[in-house]
Amino acid sequence: MSAEQEKRAIRCLVAKVGLDGHDRGAHVIARAFRDAGFEVVYSGLHRAPDDIVQAAVQEDVDVLGISILSGAHNTLVPKVIEGLKSYDAFEDTLILVGGIIPDDDEAELKKLGVAEVFGPGTPMEETVEFIRKNVPERA
Amino acid sequence: MGGPADDDEGTRATAAETSVATATGLSERDATLVEELLAGSHRALARVITRIENRSPGYRGIVAALHGHTGGANVIGITGSPGAGKSTLVDKLAAAYRDRGDTVGVVAVDPSSPYTGGAVLGDRIRMGSNVGDMDVFFRSMSARGQLGGLSMATADAVKALDAFGKDVVIIETVGAGQNEVDVVRTADTVAVLVQPGSGDDIQTLKAGILEIGDVFVVNKADMDGAERTLAELEEMVHRRESPTKGLDTGHHGFEAPDHPDGGADEASADGEADDAPAWTPEVLRTVANTGDGVGALIETFDAHARYLRESGEIRATKRQRYAEEIRTLVRSDVGALATDEIERRGGIDDLADAVRRRETDPYSVAAEIVAPIADCVESSDR
Fold it and tell me: Which one of A1, A42, A88 has the shortest CB-CB distance to B125?
């Protein structure tokens, strides 16, 4: 019997990885996601890939948005993805990367399993819309 | 520590398990999820809490299956006004519990926007001492605008963490209103956090939160005004222990541990509960940033858990808590039946319009809606 109404919300983790202190973008994104009705967990600055994995698994987020402006995405993102796989959490997590990512690297990241890369100037609505469309279907 | 908080519950586990299998349908997939959780899969635990939060189909069966495995954790509630330092203190507490070998679960409740339903759950940022330690399971929950449902969802999430095998489960919430008070009441031990110089804060605390605190903590005790806040709290706590004790908790809620009316029943059943010396709330000081006073706070939590066990009060409080859970569930289920019945009769708007046109009255409408439900109850009586 379903006496209560189901109350789903899209849960997102907005994560800052590595030695990168630029979090204005992450804050703006977190706020925009909240205004879109998402539940946003913000990781805080300077997190190691393991910390991000821990947070993503424990919070059971639908979406993991990694903000990287340090240029270390080729080292950090694969580590996060490996970690998610080790907890069986890779398949149904939508992984997004935001920041300054060269085109060649973008292709590499997408091959690894990143769903989309959003560069500077991406309209907020575009990101929100992308999430709404692509959020993993979960039971 | 880490032993069962309530010894008589562990022994019932097997009985509960067998009856649960028949009482609540558990799909094969959910049964696997429960198994994985009990086997220690973090992913399964996280997923179960999501199901609980979403109230998604089948979550009741899951919680029911887990219930038999609960009772092992010490559940601690931490509340206080925004900015009092709850998250930072929870972080330090979790680290201290880990130092002595206990595993920790944390449920941090944050408000959600009443307009969009969205929320920024920021408590995790303060969990700096425990990053990378999977034996601290930290979960943020948003209030999702549920009325009363929040305390149920929190209580169920705590059950999941308890069944998972966490020695200590901490519930963290902003102490703003009745909703939050209900949330921390699902804890065995409640700590109320106050920051120095918040004389006005204490004024507002008086009304609701002061009555549910087993421990009062003046955080940021290195700040000006800490002594005065300590003194004010001390005074208030001892006033609470005055001869009118029981009265001030009695009329505020169904779960008040020392309820004067419910007390008669409890005392005869539990005997010792009445004779044991009552718990006098402790007033402590901490500096969460540096970790000062966290050790003493944990000792006090232990002392309170011991008191609950030895006085037998744990049985009374748990009975009241579960009674309230049953009532809430039944109310919500019967309410849903009534809502269906309203729909069958043309919807609430039509009914209200009929009342407005003086064709009928609210009492008659209500009686008509409840009649079929009442009929069912009566016919199953025979």
Answer: A42
